[in-house]
Amino acid sequence: MHAAAFVVLLVSGLCLYLPSLAELVGRRPLLKTIHVYTALAWIAALLVVIAFGDRRSVRQTIREIDVWDRDDRDWLRRRRTPQGRLNAGQKLNAIVTAAFAVLFTVTGFLLWYGERNTRFRFADTILIHDWLMYVAFFLFLGHLYLTLIHPTTRHSLNGITRGWVDEQWALEHHRKWAEALGATMSAPAPAVALAGAGAAPLRVRATHTVSRLTAPRRIRLLIGAVVALVIVFALVAPVILSGETPTSQACIKTLRYASRAYSPRPMPKPSLVESVAIGVGALTGCGTPASTIDLRSLAGVRPSIAIAISTDANSIYVRHGVCANVAGRALRACLRSS
Fold it and tell me: Is there a contact between 254 and 261 (Cβ–Cβ < 8 Å)?
C-alpha cells in the first residue's frame, strides 16, 4: 500500500509539476484532488497501523533500527559482515523514509494551506517539496532494481509479498537473524518466516562481537531538535511578510521560463494562483543579477500563457504580447481563453 500510494503521488505530482505533462493532461483540478486525497489516505493508513496493528512488532522494528553495531558499520564500508533482520542499508532507508514522510507532510500542508492564506506561502516550501520528490524518486528506482533485477537481492521480494524467504538466502544475507531463529547450515529448512507470530526475539549470538554505536538519547534528541530548527528557518525565514508588489513604474523585471519572456501584471481578483510548482525561472532586470525563482501555476491557465512566482502573491507574469491591454476580471477571462 505504501508503494502504491507513492506511485500515485509521484505520477500526479509530476503531472502537476512538469509543464509538458501539465499541458498534456490538462485536468489540473482533478490531479490536484487525487494528489491531496491520496496523501491523506496514506497518512491515515499509517496512523491505523500504529493504533490498531501489531504495535509490539512496530516497537521491535524501531529498536532494531535504533541499534547499530560494528557489523553495521563494516557493512557500510562494503565488507561482508553478518547482518540482522535489517541490514545497515535497510536501517538507513527506514530513517530516511520516516524523515521524508514528515517533510512531505509539512511542506504539502503548507502548499495546500498557502492557497487559502497567502501569509503561509513560504518561498522555499515548493523547493523543499520538489527536492524531496527528486531524492525519493531515485531511491524508489534503486529499490525496484534491487527487488526485481539484481540477482542476489531480488529473492527479498518473497519477504515483501509472501512473508518468507529461503533459509540459505537468509543465512547469506541476514545471518544473525537466521541463527537467532534457529537456522543452521547443517540442518537446512525450506524457508524462514519473517517476524511472524511466535518468532524468537532478535538476539546476536556471542560469536558476533557487538559494539553499540547509538548516542545517548539526549544527544539524539538534541540532534533532532537542531534539524527541526534548520527546517523551520528554511521555510519561514525567506517568507515575504509585506504585501508590496516587486515592480514599480520606474523598473519592471522580466521573467524567463521555457525560452519565453513574461512581464508582471497585477493579480486579478479572485486570485488565480494554484500554488502548484511547475519549475524554475530566471528573473532579470532593474540592474540586478539574474536570479532563479520557483514558479507556480495559475488555475485554468496554461503555463505557456501566464505563471506566478513563489515570493509574490500580488502579481502574475504574463507572456509578452498576450492580453496586453486587459486588466482585472477581463484579464482573468482573457488568460483562460488564450
Answer: yes
